[in-house]
Each structure stands twice: as structure tokens, then as C-alpha cells.
Amino acid sequence: MPSSPTSMTKAIVGEPEVVEDARASVDGVETSSAWISLKTAATSLQALQIKDGSVPEASDHPAAREHVRTIVAAIVELAPRFPHDAEYLAASVRDFERWAEGGFGVPDFLDSLVAFQPQRHRVDGIRHLVVFPMYTQNGSSDRFVEAVLVEVIWPEFIAELETEYTNKLFVSLRFLDFTPGYDTNSAVLFPETVAMREIPPFTWGAIFQDREAARYRRVVRAAAEVTKLELPADAARMLDDQALTEKTFVMWDIIHDRTHMRGDLPFDPFMIKQRMPYFLYSLEELRCDLTAFRECVAITSRLRARVDAGEVLDAAEAEMLEHAVLVQYAVIFDRIFRFSITGSRVRNYDGLGGQLLFAWLHQRGVLHWTDTSLAFDWPEVPAAVVALADAIDELYWRSIDRPKVAHWLAAYDLVRGTLTPNPASVWARGLSDEILAGPPKGYTDAVMDDEFPLSMFFEALDKKMKPVIESTTGITGADA
């Protein structure tokens, strides 16, 4: 196999003027012969791998070696176009060579993962070539070799926003091209999905805002037609402007993402490390979204007050104000129209969060479903949304002093105070003394897969929207 050239080992520091040159060097890379051969070889290699990423059949090793040779040669050819990723691409070559030389056991790409540091180059338009054996969340659970070409979305107003809402781990991306693992609903690129021998401290996490924006635009457009909702002018603009919506999702996500690590947290904010009832995950994700909503209400109020006082906002501030308004619509419509009816009814925590937001607004009289038409009292909506955020925050604050299972019971009461549980629910009827006195596992096992079924509104909406929801699988900004 080709050896990695020494030029690949020289990383570039991410000053904007240096990165500008790097950005220009990769224009058209997604149509280059090197990328196409890399993508083809990675896809062919996937057919030889099993779930853990290894290639167990000795008879498949000659073909696997040929695919790896092609991948390595393509990385070496493409590397000069990504000088800011030189250290990572050199390490990737070494990891692929070592994997092949070791007989294609369970892959270990720790070295190249540690070398990949996209958060150091948050410059609008800069691109990365990413190749790892990994699973793709909401996509494939197999740790196959996946390759993806990405472009950073980092407008000036986000750079300014990040000085107040510091989130050095956050990277916002746009798809350019990808292997089959990303031809799915996956809209994230997380380091913990990579096959590796040990878990390092993670220093970044990336979200594909172009996919989120494209899904949002398609689903909300259809849902507004189905429900006869008259969209406010600002919300309607997003449906016709992919770039505008992408930036809106960047603002939403940067505040959402940092919220997982902030606040009165009675538990590990990365709850995936713990086994607990799925409605706890619902409340945590909803808490982060509603915090983004609340902060955007505050930003809107603060900047509008300056305008009303006669100040002239600079360009970044004006764009921040524009998108702070749009985030509020995005949180409500994405949660209600897409989250609530996307995915199965098996412990669907994002779906439950959308149902809860809808019912909360309806029961507080700011959302109306009358004469088969949906309407909002928009001046009253922010206060109602913030009230739900306050209720979740109070739950968290009180639970710092509660035993874990008592927190679970209190969280259930919060949810069922708005949503109706499944009639067969043992949680709703009251857990038995045996479960209450037993280990937490008994509580979790007693939760039904669909503990809070869809309301009649959402059952009807789901039937009409299912083809639209399904059509968003694999969508990118280029498809919108």
C-alpha cells in the first residue's frame, strides 16, 4: 500500500486567512475521480464487514485488501486539498494499513480519531474528508467503513453568538456526499460512534444542519397545508430559503447542545450512559430545545429594545435578531409536526417531547384545533413555551434532593399532567409495592413501549403525513 507522504503530517493552524486557501483548494472535490473511487471502495468493503466492523472470512481478505488499497490511495491523492486535516489524514492511512496488516479484525481507528479536530477550523465553507469505521446514529448500527465529504456552516453572527453561548465542542456541517450509512435519517457525526480500542476525551460533536433544515422545510410545508395553518410571514420565509433555515438550525443547535451540560442537573447530562425510562430522555431533549427557545426570546427582546432606542445594529447583530425570531418558530413546528410522528412508537422519546409541547400549548389556550384548522395566538405563545421550560427546570432543581426513582416518578407525573397514558399502563395505575421497593430495573421494565400513545389529532396527522416523513430519509440541502 502507498505510504503516507511527509507533507500530510503538517497540520495547519486555523487562522481564517490560512483556512481560506484551504477552502478554495477543495472546490469540486465531490466530483473528483479520487473521491468517487474512495466512495465506491468503501461501499464495496461494507459488503464484506460484519456488525463489529471486522472482515471474518479469510476468503474475503484479498478483496478487502484491494478495497483498502484504493481507499488509502484516494486519501493520499486528496490529502493536499485538505491541508488543515493533514495530521488526521496521515493517521487515517496508518490506521487502514494496520487494520489490513492485522487481518481485518475489529477495527481500531483511535489514532486517526484523536488527530481529527474539526472544531479548530470553524470557518464558513471549509471542507473535511472524513473516513472511519463507524455506525451512524438513526441510521446503521453496524460499524462499517463510512466516508463523508462535509462543509462547515459558520456564519459571522454565529461566531459572535458563540462568544456568549460558548460551545467549543460544537461543529455545524453541510453534506457534500456520503456512503450508504448516511443515506438515512442520521444528521450527526459523533466521535463515539467510531470503532476504537479505548474511549478518549471527546473534543467535538457535529450536526448536519442542511439535513435538519431540508427535513423541516419539506415537513412543515406539507403539515401547514394539511392543518390549514396560516404561517406567520417570518416562518413562511424559511420554507422558501434553505440557507436561511440552515443558519436558523445552527443557532438553535449551538444553544441546545451546550444546555446538556448546564443547569441544575440531578443526573449525568449524557443520559445515554444510564438506563432509565424513556420519558426522562424526552424531558432532557425538550429541556434543551426550550432553553434555546427561551434564550432566543431574550435575544430578540434585547436587540429589539436597542433598535427601538434608535441604535443601528451591525450586520452580525441584525442577522442574530432575524434568526432569534426564526428559531422560535423552528422549535415549535419541528417539535410538533416532525418529531411527534417520526419513527416507531417504541420508546420514542423525541416523539413524546413533541406530543407534550403540542398538548401543553393546547391546554393553555394558545394553540387551537377548531373546524379542522390549526391556529396559534402568537403574542401569547412565548410565555406558554417558557412556562413548560420552567416546569422542567423546577423538576430538575427539586430532584437534586430526591432519590433517583423518586425523580422518575415525579417526571412521570409532570408528563401525565398534560398527556394521557396508555390505559394499560401500570405506571398510571400505580406501581406495585414489589416494584417500588425493588431495584430501578423494575421501574424501567414496567414502562410500556408506547406509554403515551398518539392523540387522535396526531393519529390523523400521522396518516396524512407518513409519505412526506418517509421521503425525508437521506435528504440533504441540495435536495430541498
Structure characterization notes:
It is a single chain. Helices cover 52% and strands 8% of the residues. The protein has 480 residues and is an alpha+beta fold. The protein folds into 2 domains: 6-203, no CATH class; 213-479, no CATH class. It has a 5-stranded mixed beta sheet with strand order 1-2-3-5-4. Strands 6-7 form a two-stranded antiparallel sheet. The relative contact order is 0.09. Residues 1-14 have low confidence and may be disordered.
Provide a compact summary of the structure.
The protein is an alpha+beta fold and 480 residues long. It has helices at residues 16-24, 33-46, 61-78, 86-101, 110-115, 156-164, 209-227, 233-239, 242-259, 278-308, 315-338, 349-363, 381-399, 404-416, 426-429, 433-436, 440-445, 456-471; strands at residues 127-134, 144-152, 170-178, 188-189, 205-208, 367-370, 373-376. It contains 18 helices and seven strands.
Counted by DSSP, the helix tally is: 18
Shape summary = globular
Through-space gap between termini: 40 Å
Instruction: Give me the side-by-side strand order of the main sheet.
Output: 1-2-3-5-4
Poorly predicted ranges: 1-14
Tell me the number of structural domains. 2
- The share of residues in helices is 40-55%
Order of helices and strands: HHHHHEEHEEEHHHHHHEEHHHHHH
Q: Could you tell me the number of beta strands? A: 7
How large is the radius of gyration?
Answer: 24 Å
Q: Main beta sheet, described? A: 5 strands, mixed
Instruction: Report strand %.
Output: 5-15%
Provide the residue-averaged pLDDT.
93
Derived structural class: alpha+beta
